[in-house]
Specification:
Number of domains: 4
GO biological process, one term: regulation of DNA-templated transcription
Strand content: 5-15%
Distance between the termini: 80 Å
CATH architecture of the largest domain: 3-Layer(aba) Sandwich
Largest sheet: 5 strands, parallel
Pfam families: AAA_lid_14, HTH_8, Response_reg, Sigma54_activat
GO molecular function, one term: ATP binding
Protein name: Fis family transcriptional regulator
Keywords: ATP-binding, Nucleotide-binding, Phosphoprotein, Transcription, Transcription regulation
Number of helices: 19
């Protein structure tokens, strides 16, 4: 939009810009222009500094507050160029001194449009990545996982090296991607490398690249992963599997920000943020001489430990239903959910394979299910080999099914349920009301469970 009281100038600018494919509107007063700019979403506004009814600076300041996404180009006479410079300090993108050439107008507008497109693209990418990890991938609100989220939030904004510890299946790469997605490098490449899948000789070439003739079969120069990840983030998974020779080369990258391709007589500069992960005790490996101590300290700048799923049982129902929805959409099936006792089986399973194992099992259950609500009998049928307390045989009669269900609830969940109550009560010094609130239950339901397990605690001040 053009805001200028010179109607001939507005028409001339409209003609020039329209011929280049821009949709252009014009307003001949500052009041009309400001009202239109506040109502609609213009990408670029050409704004005259001197208008009879409203000063251009006043329009600029209002739009900067109310419509910060608009790019404003100031139009000014030679006598007020200094005012235009002042306007740029207040947030204007550029200025054109009257009279200006068509090419000057087109160049200024093109620069503004290009800049806006770049900003919009980056914002969209960050939102897409951030939403992906927040909503679709990393699920949970247990205290253990919330502590990890807080660490991710803090370290993402820095350029520090991060070492992520966690058992297999805890989602180390997902958290690495979350750090990248919330960092200043989010619009650049995220490259993940599983260090356990390559032999030592191949890994060196994969990481640092090689030059032609470096070894048999090297018929041309090859860019390494460090070069591909330039200005972005490199995630080294299973970093404990890197041998000592490559550890020394990786240390140089971290210390000097440079590396040498295999067979080369020169170094290349590296601007890559490194995130590493392991399911091993690197400190113990240092003691054993299997991992360089100096590299360990370089990687361990900001350690993050991911809790295993068995330590965040409160997140299991959310994960179960998240993957249930995911695989129902994928397969086109409609499954209403799980019975309470079936869900309890899933909550109290040990999950040695963590979230990855849970995801795989839910996928299998969806594939095998005919719809409706999943119950213990279906878990027995499709998960029997993975549930240690299940017999290999499936009940054949209703009475056998009821007996199995009663046995599971009494022997497996009874002990856990009682321990759950005792732990909550101890944490609140026997205060039933506070204990119930802590675990997210109504006091009456909490008291009923206490009665079921013959637990007697008295509120402070309550008569015996």
């Amino acid at each position: 939009m053009i805001i200028d009281d010179e109607k001939m100038l507005c028409k001339a600018c409209q003609l020039v810009l329209s011929e280049e494919g821009y949709a252009v509107e014009a307003k001949s007063t500052g009041t009309d222009g400001l009202a239109a700019a506040l109502e609609d979403n213009y990408d670029v506004i050409l704004l005259d500094m001197k208008m009879p009814d409203l000063d251009g600076m006043e329009v600029l300041n209002t739009l900067r507050k109310e419509k910060p996404g608009q790019f404003i180009i100031i139009i000014t006479g030679y006598s007020t160029v200094q005012n235009a410079v002042d306007a740029m300090k207040q947030g204007a993108f550029d200025y054109l001194a009257k009279p200006f050439l068509d090419d000057e107008l087109l160049l200024s507008v093109k620069k503004a449009v290009d800049k806006k497109n770049l900003i919009d693209e980056n914002i969209a990418l960050r939102k897409e990545l951030s939403d992906s990890f927040r909503s679709d991938k990393i699920i949970g609100d247990s205290p253990a996982i919330l502590r990890v989220f807080e660490k991710v939030r803090k370290v993402a904004l820095t350029d520090s090296t991060v070492l992520i510890y966690g058992e297999s299946g805890t989602g180390k790469e997902l958290f690495a991607r979350a750090i990248h997605a919330h960092s200043g490098r989010a619009a650049k490449q995220f490259v993940a490398v599983d260090c356990s899948t390559f032999s030592s000789s191949i890994l060196e070439s994969e990481l640092f690249g090689h030059v032609k003739g470096a070894f048999t079969g090297a018929e041309h120069d090859k860019a390494g992963i460090f070069e591909l990840a330039q200005s972005g983030t490199l995630f080294l998974d299973d970093v404990a599997n890197i041998n000592l020779d490559i550890q020394a080369k990786l240390l140089r990258v971290l210390e000097a920000r440079e590396y040498k391709p295999v067979g080369a007589g020169f170094f290349k500069k590296s601007d890559v943020r490194i995130l590493a992960a392991t399911n091993k005790n690197l400190a113990a490996m240092v003691e054993q001489g299997a991992f360089r101590e100096d590299l360990f300290y370089r990687l361990n700048v900001f350690p993050i430990s991911l809790p295993p799923l068995r330590e965040r049982k409160g997140d299991i129902p959310k994960l179960v239903y998240h993957y249930l929805r995911h695989f129902c959409q994928k397969t086109g099936k409609h499954i209403d959910g799980f019975t309470e006792d079936a869900l309890e089986v899933l909550i109290n399973y040990e999950w040695s394979g963590n979230v990855r194992q849970l995801k795989n099992i839910i996928e299998r259950l969806v594939i095998m299910s005919e719809g409706g609500i999943m119950d213990i009998i279906q878990l027995t049928s499709h998960m029997g080999a993975q549930l240690p307390y299940m017999n290999n045989s499936v009940p054949e009669t209703l009475s056998e099914l009821k007996a199995l269900k009663k046995s599971l609830l009494e022997n497996t969940f009874g002990r856990i349920e009682k321990a759950f109550l005792i732990k909550a009560l101890k944490a609140k010094q026997g205060n039933i009301t506070k204990a119930a609130k802590k675990v997210g239950m109504h006091r009456s339901n909490f008291s009923a469970l206490m009665k079921k397990h013959k637990l007697v605690y008295r509120e402070k001040g309550e008569k015996p």
